[in-house]
Amino acid sequence: MSLFPSVFGRNHPGALKGEIDRVFDDFFAGFPAMTGFAAGDNVYMPALDLKETKEGLELTADLPDMKKEDIHLEVQQDRLVLSGMRKQEQESTTDEGFHFRERRSGSFRRVVALPFAVNDNADVVARYDNGVLRVLIPRPANPVDNTQRVSIS
């Protein structure tokens, strides 16, 4: 049986697109960081932007339809950890009636490496408004260089 009649047949105008989508979904399903793109996975991975300014760092995260209570944010020296749980609108366990589903839900955890260590007493400010989280991390006044030369024997 040939693949070409079902993919390129005139009776199936969307068959080629469907086959290409299936190939990409199968390909990306093997990558842990990309599982949010594979159809059928129930993974949510929020989009992040990290911008350096004169004052410090500005992180912006898109977290639509989430409650502030479901978001956990912490700074660990030179890392920012953002985690949480995005819940589905409906608790339906079947995909009955859907042609496709792209909106994701589930738990997530993003760890962002920062270009400098954050002091314990730094005034990190986080605001959540209309599904967008903005985090302002001030640049340390006296940055500590933790670089240590290691001799090779």
Share of β-strand residues: 25-35%
Task: Please count the beta strands (DSSP E, at least 2 residues each).
Answer: 7
Tell me the name of the CATH class of the domain at 45-89 and 105-140: Mainly Beta
Examine the secondary-structure arrangement and name the CATH architecture of the domain at 45-89 and 105-140: Sandwich
Q: How far do the termini sit from each other?
A: 63 Å
> Uncertain spans, ≥5 residues at pLDDT below 50?
32-40
Structural class, please? alpha+beta
Compute the average pLDDT: 76
Report on the architecture of this protein:
This protein has 153 residues and is of the alpha+beta class. It has a domain at 45-89 and 105-140: Sandwich (Immunoglobulin-like). The protein contains two helices and seven strands, in the order ααβββββββ. Strands 1-2-7-6 form a four-stranded antiparallel beta sheet, with no helix packed on it. A three-stranded antiparallel beta sheet has the order 3-4-5, with no helix packed on it. The protein is extended and about 60 Å long. Residues 32-40 have low confidence and may be disordered.
List the helices and strands and how they pair.
Layout: H1 4-8, H2 15-28, E1 48-52, E2 56-62, E3 71-76, E4 79-86, E5 106-113, E6 125-129, E7 132-138
Antiparallel strand pairs: 1-2, 2-7, 3-4, 4-5, 6-7
